Hints:
The chain is of the alpha/beta class.
Amino acid sequence: MIRVNGLRKTYGEFPAVVGSDFAVDRGEIFGIVGPNGAGKTTTLKMLAGLVEPSAGTATVGTYDAGDPEMRRSLGFLPEESPLYEDMTPRSYLRFFADLYDVPRDVARERTEETLDRLELEHRERRLGDMSKGMKRKVAIARSLVNDPDLLIYDEPASGLDPLTTNYVLEFTRELAERGKTVVFSAHNLYHVESVCDRVVIMNRGQIVARGTVPEIRDEHGSTTYRVFTT
Ligand code: ATP
């Protein structure tokens, strides 16, 4: 589904991502783990076509990352999702469905189904008055309005309480069970170990370890976090 070769991004002289290579299979949940500034967001934005690589290639299916056709079948969840505070979840999701030309009746049904699956309460409340966890659920629902094949989630569980964190991670696993491919980033191996098929660990723009979570644990054991800080 995704093939990344020699992907690199420099901001001025600063190398944010230094020659990444990885591939993600269809239906897989793939984690990118690393500390602040590791290059996770930059990598995800290059996959989503939101940041132009300085070198290398990223393809999604048969498209180059960023191709307008590919972007229509993509759901991107940014680390901080700006929501229109005066809208309700329903009006917000239908607004985005319109942007994707989703027929009104399909949008209505899909929106209700997604909000039910996410168990979102207080659907008539203004987004501005919702808790962080509720807002994150609405942002996740927004990433699904166009029924995309590929979901790119930037730290979907960060800043949430343990219950909501588990909820979001569990929901991510359900999405993959329904055939979606999911790439998501996290600071913490704990956030990926229960859901990811494979993981890369990034530090200072480089992939420093890769494999299944047990493989990474076996390879690095208790030194995994030293990988982050060296
Ligand atoms: P975090 O966990 O804090 O979100 P991250 O792993 O997502 O970190 P990135 O946001 O990709 O890391 O940033 C990687 C590096 O690139 C950081 O040092 C960051 O300051 C730098 N960087 C990111 N975007 C820009 C930009 N637009 N201009 C200059 N430098 C940038």
